[in-house]
Amino acid sequence: MSPRPRGATEPAGERELLSAGDVARTIARMAHQVIEKTALGAGSAAPPVLLGIPTRGTPLAVRLAERIAEFSGVRPPTGALDVTLYRDDLRRRPTRALEETQLPPSGIDDRIVILVDDVLFSGRTIRAALDALRDHGRPKAVQLAVLVDRGHRELPIRADYVGKNVPTSRAEEVAVLLSEVDGTDAVLLRMEPPQ
Amino acid sequence: MKHLLATDGLDPAFATAVLDTADELKHTLLGREVRKLPTLRGRTVVTLFYENSTRTRVSFEIAGKWMSADVINVSASSSSVNKGESLRDTALTLAAAGADCVIVRHPASGAAQRLSGWLADAGTVVINAGDGTHEHPTQALLDAATLRERLGSLAGRRIGIVGDVLHSRVARSNIHLLAALGAEVVLVAPPTLLPAGVESLPVTISHELDAELPALDAVMMLRVQAERMTGGFFPSAREYSIGYGLSEARLKLLPEHAVVLHPGPMLRGMEIASAVADSPASAITEQVRNGVHVRMAVLYHLLAGEGDAA
């Protein structure tokens, strides 16, 4: 988790949007928003279930839950929901490997489910996640938390909790790096996707 | 066009990908309300069976249906095959009618390979569900999935394949797949039930079951295929059973962690004692359960991605 000095080690065509410290602060802010919006700790209602969308949504959901536990004293159950089998672009790309799906033992029926992902782009992943959820149970409500919203929606989907809004062009790529997966924390904007 | 015709020459990376997918599928389907995935919606899968089968046909059908493919079953006895239509014409008819995938079982070795040639222009995927005494790749994959589940990794494990190797496509597919995944294979059979050219296979050969059992991590019992036997391969069923059947006494010779597999259908009392088949060491019902997930994974890898992916 070594913080990258701004502008110092960046390769050409790459810009740092969030440093490691920014990522931590952003997740903390989102945790406060979740506590407020779901009225966590106020009543006897069950805490929301945080389901990360692999790859990077999964550790993000865990981090968010840890922050929420720290601030409210209640740790929401977490899990992972792989949506590969529900994607609408399977036939346009080479076969993808599946990732882990792991629902908390408490299940999702009649709970508030918060889907957690790193980047919100076209909205198609979230559409697939909503379909996948329907096969696993019937939540009371479904909300969406994303670290970065980069725009360019292709479906009527919006996030309930957004870490950072980033206006982008379609040629750019937003890369979220998390220490659990990438060994370091950062959000980068790449001018051209590497080919 | 991708097909699954044999495990001989199969890319180990592909095999591992299929096994990993099967594992995730098993996991994701566990305890969920709706056991159906939309992945193969709009795809048509035909099972074309020229030989009898319960578990292979049923598990392919369930696998296809759980992935939302439309599955149609054609069996030789109730189709125009009965009127004398050739395999080629039957296959072309199925492709013309809109099959995206044909799953074929045929008594002739090499039938699936021929079929894939005839259907190349139509772009139909061919899966071999058993061709004569040649190969049965999905059975080997589900055996590998079951062994991985019980033993962890297959690398360096010693697996015995016991009995009628000569007539067994299951044995042939397992020999190649297990070797590719890094396991050591020992064939244990009477000399009359070993195929010609067995020396060229990546195996060691033994005729003494009792001597091999203590060192095995798993033992795969093969059915004695009376329907393919035209001569005297062993003096009597009883003598075969004494020499190569997995009795309760022999089960005790195996290490504690060892797994007993049988591709089914079992002849209880012949190659495997009833009590052994029902013992905790036996993974025979797990094999059937894993068969569905492995076949879902095979359909996923062959049908879900873009047409001509590498």
Can you give a write-up of this model?
- The complex is a heterodimer of chains A (195) and B (310).
- In chain A, the strands form two sheets. Chain A has a five-stranded parallel beta sheet with strand order 3-2-4-5-6, with helices on both faces. A three-stranded antiparallel beta sheet of chain A has the order 1-8-7.
- Chain A has one domain (22-170): 3-Layer(aba) Sandwich (Rossmann fold).
- Chain A has 195 residues and is α/β, with parallel strands linked by helices.
- Chain A is 26% helix and 23% strand.
- Chain A has four helices and eight strands.
- By secondary structure, chain B is α/β, with parallel strands linked by helices.
- Chain B folds into two domains: 12-134 and 288-304, Aspartate/ornithine carbamoyltransferase (Rossmann fold), CATH 3.40.50.1370; 137-284, Rossmann fold, CATH 3.40.50.1370.
- Chain B is 37% helix and 15% strand.
- Chain B has eleven helices and nine strands.
- Chain B has helices at 12-29, 55-66, 87-96, 111-118, 137-151, 169-180, 209-212, 237-244, 248-251, 274-277, 284-304; strands at 44-49, 70-75, 101-106, 125-131, 158-162, 184-188, 204-206, 218-221, 259-261.
- Chain B has a five-stranded parallel beta sheet with strand order 7-6-5-8-9, covered by helices on one side. A four-stranded parallel beta sheet of chain B has the order 2-1-3-4, sandwiched between helices.
- Chain B is globular.
- The mean pLDDT of chain B is 93.
- Chains A and B meet through α3 of A and α1 and α11 of B.
- SSE sequence of chain B, one letter per element: HEHEHEHEHEHEEHEHHEHH
Our measurement of the CA-to-CA distance between the termini of chain A, rounded to an integer number of angstroms, reads 27 Å
CATH topology term of chain A: Rossmann fold
Largest sheet of chain A: 5 strands, parallel
Please estimate the helix content of chain B. 25-40%
Main beta sheet strand tally, sense and closure of chain B:
5 strands, parallel
Shape descriptor of chain B reads globular
**Assigned CATH architecture of chain A:** 3-Layer(aba) Sandwich
